[in-house]
Amino acid sequence: MPNTFRFDDSGKTLHVPAGDEIQVQLEETPTTGYRWQVAGIDDGVLSPQGSSFSPGTAIGAAGMRTFVFRAERPGTATLNLRLQRPWEDEKSSLKNFQVTIIVDK
Amino acid sequence: MAQQKARWVADVTPLSHLSMEQKKRRLGATPPENTPTLAERERLARARLPFRSVGAAGAAPAFHPQSWDWRNVHGQNYITSIKDQSSCGSCVAFGSIATVEGTLRVIQQSPNYQVDLSEAQLFYCHARSQGRNCDNGWWPDKAMQCLYQPGVADEACYPYTPGDQNCTHLCSDWQHRAVRITGFHSISNLDEMKAWLSTRGPLSTCFTVYDDFFSYRSGVYHHVTGDLAGGHCVCVVGYDDAAQCWICKNSWGLGWGDAGFFRINYGDSGIDHEMFAVEGVAAIKITLADTAIGAPALVNINDTILAIAWTGTDSGHHLNVMGSRDEDFNFTNKVILHETSIDGPGFAFGSGRAYIAWTGTDSGHHLNCISAPDCQNFSNKVTMADTSRFGPALAFGNNKLWIAWVGTDSGWSLNVMSSVDGMHWQDKVTLHESSDSAPDLVFLRGKLYLLWQGTDSNSSLNILESTDGVHWGNKVTLHDSSDFHPALTATQSELILSWTGRDSSHHLNTLRSPGPTNGFGNKLVYGDTSVAGLGLVYFRGKVYIAWTGTDSGHHLNVMKLPYV
Description:
The complex is a heterodimer.
Chain A: E1 3-6, E2 13-17, E3 21-28, E4 35-41, E5 46-54, E6 63-71, E7 75-84, E8 95-104
Parallel strand pairs in A: 1-3, 2-8
Antiparallel strand pairs in A: 3-6, 4-7, 5-6, 7-8
Chain B: E1 8-10, H1 38-47, E2 67-69, H2 91-107, H3 119-129, H4 140-148, H5 174-177, E3 180-187, H6 190-199, E4 203-210, E5 216-221, E6 228-240, E7 245-249, E8 261-265, E9 275-282, E10 285-301, E11 305-312, E12 318-324, E13 331-340, E14 346-350, E15 353-359, E16 366-372, E17 379-387, E18 393-397, E19 400-406, E20 413-419, E21 425-434, E22 440-444, E23 447-453, E24 460-466, E25 472-481, E26 487-490, E27 495-500, E28 507-513, E29 524-539, E30 542-549, E31 555-560
């Protein structure tokens, strides 16, 4: 089972074993223009594996954005995600998600 | 983009995506009620492409031009300003309302027509009542149905802010401010879409948004790369056969795309699978292009024509008349009379003739009356010996025409007299009442009622009744007051009173009564204001109110009231 984190986990410090995958699931309504973006990740400890989006049903509906990271080697990494419009600056971001990941041996 | 021969330019965004392997998860939306999924819409739209009758290489069919853009029709822009839905999935409300606003401007033939409808009411009230919210979105046909019934009020009634709300911010008089569309239908034929766009107004549509759409800056968008992000609704404001694209208004603010607009390839992302057309807009309120001094007057001509008369703001203050044969304020056949007035006129219809009375601009301010069988060819003018400080009031009942006015005597006395033909006047009575502005008269069930603004310190409204126009009684002084000419009309069973309040903005007020001695109903206060008095009439089962606005131009306004 992958380690899955959600918005309520923001601010937490989490331990994962090296080699595991980490999933971050965040609700997103892309058709508002606001999308979760990876704003910061400590290179080396975590590596991004991609993201996918599961859209909602109706026009304008929210869906679930899932980011996947791999715990590459032991160490501490801060993972920072930001909900903002790509054409606007970071001051316009609506929400931030940040977790500290400690990758254990 | 270059490798894909893209016809559009992408923006450089402040945040760069990290290099990620994109997973193809085109789950697609699964709409209820037998509507196609986003994927099905796209497939059907693409499938029509080879069979298009219109292309860059061929001549356009005669029934629509090769291009159209409601932002530039002979230099005029009929599209309202770019809005921003922000973080709420309310695009259906924004795309639909943009279409209604543009259509209303086209119908009014007025690119500057002031219209700004409430997306908040459409989404946080109407969509919410169907279980929809910022997270689960909506459907365009449902939005159109709500715009048809019960309609949507103006933006000031419920200003938009992003985030789910329970409709409590909706103004209390929204029903009197609501705009309704007269009908809508979907169009799935491309030539019909273009024909509608080039003659009737904008359209609303929904399409599939992919990741690359967010970075669109200019050119003709077509899906090149990226995952499906969801279904999105916008307003189509034009097309261009040479560029093979639709021109659309988005709701992501001015900072996105081409100043909020975008162009998209025919057939791309399901954009033209189906579009929604607004057939008409049943205005509950209209601001006319005409301007007035004093109060306008309304009259019902055989339940066939809703006519309005007013004194123009031209240097001579000429009298004007025009009529609407429907309930949607399509006023036509304006007549500018040679006569001039110091104030708003009185207006009445009876025995097959329309009568206008006014206070002349002569030095003595004499009363005058003129009539016409058709509201067009006025004749039989008489100038009376009596003089008035303000405009007179006219009413028809008991086979007589009645006139009431404020005399030029030192006591500002109210006077009433009658005539059978509008030329010969008799039975004048001077009441022991005085008024600070023009009075109003109406007939209900064989009784004549007179409403006026008293000269007491509170400027209280007063009403008197009479069966013969000579003997008056049952005076009622209301708790309400006004600084301007009040108005009076009658439905089949009750009186309707209206006046501009003495609040700082002079808001319009209405009150209904089965008869002054039988009490009054609840007072309604409207969002509109006037400092020039108003006119009322009962027409085809509805009460209409007309007033001179407080805008700098003093434009005339007409509104349909909810009374039946």
